Amino acid sequence: MDLKGAALVTGAARGIGRAVALRLAEDGFDVALNDLEYSKGDLEALSQEISLKFRKTIITLGDVSREADVIRMVDSTVQDLGGLDVMVANAGIVSVVTPFPDTTIEDWDHTLGINARGIFFCYKYAAQQMIKQGRGGRIIGASSVAGKQGYATITPYAASKFAVRGLTQSAAKDLGPYNITVNTYAPGFIDTPMLTALGDGLGGAEAYKAKRIQQTAVRDIGKPEDIASIVSYLVSKESHFITGQSISVNGGIYFD
Ligand code: NAD
């Protein structure tokens, strides 16, 4: 089965999503680029870069926590790129840095709304479309090292990333018979604007990153391209026997 076709990447304007979109285009996919309205300029620059070098792209703005937006994103991908073969539900936010139990219900709802509900919508409408097409597919979501192990001060974030793993394992079981695999990447510390913002909330990004580097076996921080290469493998023909998994890409992280 040749899986080349159309991919939709959410949160594609920067960080991991941007690297994933570029990599999938290099791999031969046409790519629908999603992010929030405020990122339109960044998406246009990325779209131009991809169109000049590699493949066709479209921009589909929208908020993944809104069901109607996700339905529209999938529909425009199908209409403009001829189908949907790969969904990368990457968009996510980090919650407000607050020790539990001072976490607010507003932060809980906001974080779970994007990181869990948003990924649920992306999986659901991608799966419906892929089943309708009848040619299989690949669904990939963003979990985290914090989706495998609790993480102090960002309780809603960790809970949302555990939810993505549960959703992934369960959806994989239902979708396997349709030749659709469902997996997540579980990054450790990857140098993106999100990590910088988290570090700033914890007393300073540079000191935070330096500390995190010391907490990896390889004494390094990951790059967005390190996640993009895993996505590239998960959408390849060779990965057809891998489903329901959450692939750690974390430099051998350990916490004290
Ligand atoms: P980032 O903040 O640098 O980029 C995220 C992108 O998602 C932004 O462009 C943002 O505008 C977009 N976005 C946010 N909310 C959205 C919404 N509701 N709808 C559509 N787009 C939205 O983040 P990143 O570091 O590139 O992380 C990407 C994913 O990987 C996230 O799900 C994150 O939780 C996960 N992750 C990142 C790290 C890391 O160290 N950077 C570690 C573990 C997991």
From TrEMBL:
Alphabetic keyword roster: NADP
UniProt cross-references to Pfam families, sorted A to Z: adh_short_C2
Domain of life of the native organism: Eukaryota
SUPFAM superfamilies, A to Z: NAD(P)-binding Rossmann-fold domains
GO BP of this protein: fatty acid biosynthetic process
Matches recorded under Gene3D superfamilies: NAD(P)-binding Rossmann-like Domain (3.40.50.720)
Gene Ontology molecular functions: oxidoreductase activity, acting on the CH-OH group of donors, NAD or NADP as acceptor; quinone binding
Family to which this protein belongs: Belongs to the short-chain dehydrogenases/reductases (SDR) family.
PANTHER family (alphabetical): 3-OXOACYL-(ACYL-CARRIER-PROTEIN) REDUCTASE (PTHR42760:SF121), SHORT-CHAIN DEHYDROGENASES/REDUCTASES FAMILY MEMBER (PTHR42760)
Protein's UniProt name: Acetoin reductase family protein
Lineage summary: Eukaryota, Fungi, Dikarya, Basidiomycota, Agaricomycotina
